[in-house]
Design brief:
- By secondary structure, this protein is of the alpha+beta class.
- Among the domains are: about 35-85; about 90-195, Head domain of nucleotide exchange factor GrpE (Nucleotide Exchange Factor Grpe, Chain A, domain 2), CATH 2.30.22.
- It contains 8 helices and 6 strands.
- The strands form 2 sheets. Strands 1-4-5 form a 3-stranded antiparallel β-sheet. It has a 3-stranded mixed β-sheet with strand order 2-6-3, with no helix packed on it.
- β4 (about 180) and β5 (about 185-190) form a beta hairpin.
- α4 runs antiparallel to α6.
């Protein structure tokens, strides 16, 4: 029979001796050559390795999030570049639309009715304007409806104010030049005139009942307090007070006089 190998992991044995006694098992890489196998050292190295793994995982997640943000930002920039690439070209066509509108507005309706040639020419200009606006709207350019709307600094450019108390303060009452938007972004603000002197936006108009109540509350009679004489009940007679009533004891009151007490206990 072949002799059996002795147990290499005896108390006090080093890692080198353990490795020599047990071929195929090398623990010197874990704790170092010539060092004893210590559970505390292995636990510390395990904790350090887990901390390193957590740090690398955090860095990986941060790099992944940054890459995703860059991808989304590039996609948004590419989409906006496709939507607003024609902003310069569309802005250059707006004066053409303005001139067509001015040409149509300069022709009187009575003149068109009298002159058939002028009516045909004006109709052609109207169709040209309609086609131009249709093409612009197809590419996202829309006219701003400003007349009668509350003033919006993002859409309107106020040039002057007109005294007008029939509409709320700040309402657009005159449009000098139409404005346009491109995909919900202002391409050119509308140049307008706004009302001044009217009620504030959102304020409720005063009714006749509220006006009457305010007038009654501000009258001199209401400031002095209610009158001691009621008109519907007639004149109220106040009790007459005796001149020496303030110096007389309650028991000294003379019966039968106004304001006297009668002792009913006797």
């Amino acid at each position: 029979m072949e002799p059996q190998h002795e147990d290499a992991r005896q108390p006090g044995a080093t890692t080198a001796e353990a490795g020599a006694a047990a071929p195929g098992i090398d623990v010197t890489d874990a704790v170092g050559a010539g060092e004893p196998v210590d559970a505390t050292v292995l636990a510390e190295r395990l904790i350090a390795a887990e901390a390193e793994v957590a740090r690398l995982k955090d860095e990986y997640l941060r790099a992944l999030a940054e890459t995703e943000n860059v991808r989304r930002r590039a996609q948004r920039d590419r989409q906006e570049a496709g939507q607003y690439a024609i902003s310069g070209f569309a802005r250059g066509l707006l004066p053409v639309a303005d001139n067509l509108r001015r040409a149509i507005g300069s022709v009187d309706a009575e003149a068109r009715a009298r002159d058939t040639a002028l009516d045909a020419l004006t109709s052609g200009v109207e169709m040209t304007e309609k086609d131009l606006l249709t093409v612009l709207e197809r590419h996202g350019v829309k006219r701003i409806e400003a007349d009668g709307q509350p003033f919006d600094p993002h859409l309107h450019e106020a040039l002057f104010e007109l005294p007008n108390e029939s509409v709320p303060h700040g309402t657009v009452v005159q449009v000098l030049e139409d404005g346009y938007t491109l995909h919900e972004r202002t391409l050119r603000p509308a140049r307008v005139g706004i009302a001044r002197g009217g009620p504030k936006p959102g304020a409720q108009p005063a009714t006749d009942a509220s006006v009457a109540a305010d007038a009654a509350s501000n009258s001199p009679e209401s400031a002095e307090g209610p009158s001691p004489i009621a008109e519907d009940d007639g004149v109220i007679e106040f009790r007459q007070r005796q001149p020496d009533a303030a110096y007389r004891k309650p028991g000294d009151s003379r019966p039968g006089t106004p304001g006297s007490r009668v002792d009913e206990t006797h």
